[in-house]
């Protein structure tokens, strides 16, 4: 292809037929092409229309086959939107050319019927319909000069008024999970207008809710528990013998502690009454007490219902009685794999942190054990709970192959 490219429109052929009425109106073998390139062009080339002067890319069309534009080169992003606008510009140019030809016929006193016949030969399927040709012929005959459409204000929007925007905002604030379709149906407006109010007028965006996990489990707390090896270690001089440790055992005085906590701290705890065992009836009451504690201490979680319950697979926890109660109250459960203490925050974080300071100390009564347990629970900082949940995310992602919104 030559460096110096030019624009040759079908208008040239039309003008040839219009100025040479003695020539036969027949199709030629020559290609009618519209070419525009950013390469150097000579001053002899015809000026490129404004509709083509957009820095999209170099493009070439051919209108040989039923005037369907073919894109031969497309250097930048070949997106559907760019292709659409190139095709749109092409047909817009065709329409403007035909109006120019009609205006030419009016100036040269060529009848409208003959003008329409010549347009049909030159533009074939892309020809304007007969009513449009006659309408533009009449307007040019009455003195019109401009071939472009007149600007129209369009129909005023009745969907994006201040009143509608306020109504949409009230509905969203009343129900954050409402859908665009529901709002559109209630206000009798289109989904597109409703979506525009959400995004453009109110500046809202839909985000996924993070679920907060509440972990829970039971553990025995003893009146006396043996110190760990690290706790019982001592300093010694090089010439001194290694100190001997007297074997000791746990005390028979003990109490069962049930604790539930989230990333902000302890939500609920209770001690097993003396003489009772952890069965399905007892744990059902624990679940009732836990729900009441969430309502009081975590009102945001209770209102939005964006919390999960996580406990192990103990028989009392998985009994039909407890599962029916949780299902009836729409309590979501988080699964727990068996024999996986690294997936249970109570096992790898809470109970070791609670019991470690109490090891080696002696508590004579159950009340003393309970009091000491409560004090140790209060000593665990909020940052410790946050770190626990952050550490928990990694093994969860490895096991379940998902990213949990735990906080």
From TrEMBL:
Domain of life, per lineage: Eukaryota
Pfam families on file: Transposase_1
InterPro entries with a match to the protein in the record: RNaseH_sf, Transposase-MT_Hybrid, Transposase_1
Gene3D superfamilies membership: 1.10.10.1450, Ribonuclease H-like superfamily/Ribonuclease H
Record-given protein name: Transposase
Taxonomic source organism: Cordylochernes scorpioides
């Amino acid at each position: 292809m030559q460096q110096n490219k030019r624009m040759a429109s079908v208008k040239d052929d039309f003008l040839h037929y219009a100025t040479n009425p003695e020539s036969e109106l027949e199709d030629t073998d020559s290609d009618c092409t519209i070419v525009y390139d950013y390469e150097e062009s000579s001053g002899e080339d015809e000026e490129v229309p404004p509709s083509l002067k957009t820095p999209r890319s170099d493009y070439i069309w051919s209108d040989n086959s039923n005037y369907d534009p073919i894109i031969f080169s497309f250097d930048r992003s070949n997106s559907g939107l760019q292709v659409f606008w190139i095709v749109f510009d092409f047909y817009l140019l065709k329409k403007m050319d035909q109006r120019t030809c009609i205006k030419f016929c009016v100036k040269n006193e060529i009848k409208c019927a003959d003008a329409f016949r010549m347009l049909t030969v030159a533009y074939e399927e892309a020809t304007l319909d007969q009513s449009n040709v006659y309408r533009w012929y009449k307007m040019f005959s009455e003195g019109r000069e401009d071939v472009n459409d007149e600007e129209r204000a369009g129909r005023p929007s009745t969907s994006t008024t201040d009143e509608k925007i306020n109504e949409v905002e009230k509905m969203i604030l009343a129900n954050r999970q409402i859908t665009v379709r529901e709002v559109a149906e209630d206000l009798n407006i289109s989904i597109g207008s409703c979506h525009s109010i959400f995004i453009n007028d109110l500046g809202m965006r839909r985000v996924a809710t993070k679920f907060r996990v509440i972990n829970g489990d039971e553990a025995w707390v003893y009146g006396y528990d043996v110190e760990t090896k690290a706790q019982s270690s001592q300093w010694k001089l090089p010439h001194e013998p290694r100190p001997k440790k007297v074997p000791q055992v746990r005390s028979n005085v003990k109490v069962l502690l049930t604790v539930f906590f989230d990333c902000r701290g302890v939500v609920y705890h209770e001690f097993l009454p003396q003489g009772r065992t952890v069965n399905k009836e007892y744990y059902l009451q624990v679940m009732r007490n836990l729900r009441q504690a969430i309502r009081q201490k975590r009102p945001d979680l209770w209102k939005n219902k964006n919390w999960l319950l996580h406990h192990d697979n103990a028989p009392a926890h998985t009994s039909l009685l407890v599962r029916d109660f949780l299902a009836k109250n729409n309590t979501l459960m988080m699964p727990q794999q068996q024999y996986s203490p690294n997936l249970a925050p109570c096992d790898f974080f809470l109970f070791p942190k609670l019991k470690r300071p109490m090891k080696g100390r002696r508590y004579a009564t159950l009340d003393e054990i309970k009091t000491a347990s409560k004090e140790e629970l209060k000593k665990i900082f909020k940052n410790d709970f946050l770190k626990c949940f952050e550490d928990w995310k990694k093994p969860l992602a490895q096991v379940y192959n998902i990213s949990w919104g735990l906080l």
